[in-house]
Amino acid sequence: MNSDLTVIIFYSYLLGSIPFGLIITRLFLKQDVRKIGSGNIGATNVLRTGKKSLAILTLFLDILKGYICIYFTLVNFPEFIHLAALICLLGHIFPIWLKLKGGKGVATYLGILLALSFELALIFSISWLLILYITKYSSLSSILSSLNVFLFSFYSTLIYPDFIYLTFFIIILFAHRENLVRLKNKTERKIKL
What we know:
This protein is mostly helical. 69% of the residues lie in helices and 0% in strands. The chain has helices at residues 3-16, 20-29, 43-47, 52-76, 81-93, 106-116, 118-135, 138-154, 163-175, 177-184.
């Protein structure tokens, strides 16, 4: 295997797999966020601890790790930018130290988008906020916003090919498969802001 590929896969997965939600709740609340609410390690579930500040911090750090991964790759290995983005996102969703049970990847995906295309990151963010405001479902907001990014990229002229955004949408959709079942059964939890 190309040594550059090995390095890229290593740091992308390592960055993506840092479970900030788990670290923050253990550090500040002496709790395991996996035993709260949905059991997820992401910002939405951290919010269910009742500590908005910790949820915001988790969100910021999960976005930051996606951004740093892609920015570093753009500077050093631009030809492998899609690989780094994919591995970073998969690292967040399937961290080896948490038995492959990580977050849903949404905040990390936003960080990736910020580094790849500010325009797409803006579309994702506005879409997510609007859908959340209307439905109060974080999962539905994430799925539909990821779809919107793909659709926008498909009908626009961008530097990066459209297929990568379709791949991201499929990954986000897969990560929310349990949420889709709960949405269908009308048992999905709404977010109280």
